[in-house]
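Form 7-S
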Amino acid sequence: MFGQDIGIDLGTATVIAYVKGKGIVLREPSVVAVNNLTNEVLAVGHEARRMLGRTPGNIVATRPLRDGVISDYNVTEKMLKYFIHKIGGKFLFAPRIMICIPSQVTEVEKKAVIDAASNAGARKVYLIEEPIAAAIGAGIDISKPSGNMIVDIGGGTTDIAVISLGGSVVSSSIKVAGDKFDEYIVKYIKRRHNVIIGERTAEELKVNVGCVFPKFQDMEMDVRGRDLSTGLPKTITVYSSEMMEALEEPAMKIVEAVHAVLEKTPPELAADISDKGIYMTGGGCLIDGLDSLLQDRIGINVMIAEDAISCVAIGTGKALDNLDKIY
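Output:
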């Protein structure tokens, strides 16, 4: 296999990889199951995700990335090694890899990503800021002297940036995104129904009935959890109107962050954004009504990019073809 270029969206919740000429070749949860006694990796991706919250004492299913950055270096390296091998099998030459990172990471965090990818088998590692990769993936021409606003809502972070002439003019990154929505749902169900549910159940609720803007019709979903008063399993019905109540706080934090970035944006670029609208990317932006809520509060047209979940990975891969323009 000749060394090919790989673009990787190393997400807190999902790892997505893009290979030139092939498109998206991998989309797996960033979860690794490790045997504590032998330090051996037992499963990665989909298989490991099924083990979350269901493992015996000696096996730990963990997510090695938290809030958009590496929290467990060794496990991240093993995970990358597994995914790179899965994408290309045995390489004749090591691949060049471009990885996206949140816009406000420290030099230490950047070095951790570069080292992990190098040790996992990359010939050369490049980094790109998430909002810039998202803009390229969404098909926006960022090389012109014109303002574009991107709101990329992933699993661990929401990255907001105003991009012009290929770079970000104003950017902000907050640790409120998909995972935070799940946390708020778990807390709300516990408070409202006195029932404890797991992360995966919370995510199912978010995807199926979650919303942050009033809906015409109230939807419902049955979920199972543990009743705190009896300690026994219990089934409850949860409505989308309750989800709206549960998710109001984190959704408003994202709206406030967008507002804060707009306040710092130079007037000429702000005028461009007002004309073109705001682009939303990332899996977290697909929660029902988030675009309507943002449009309602900010007063600027909001559009969800075509393939919102894969935008960052596609942009990361395309950026490898235009290294001279970015570096």
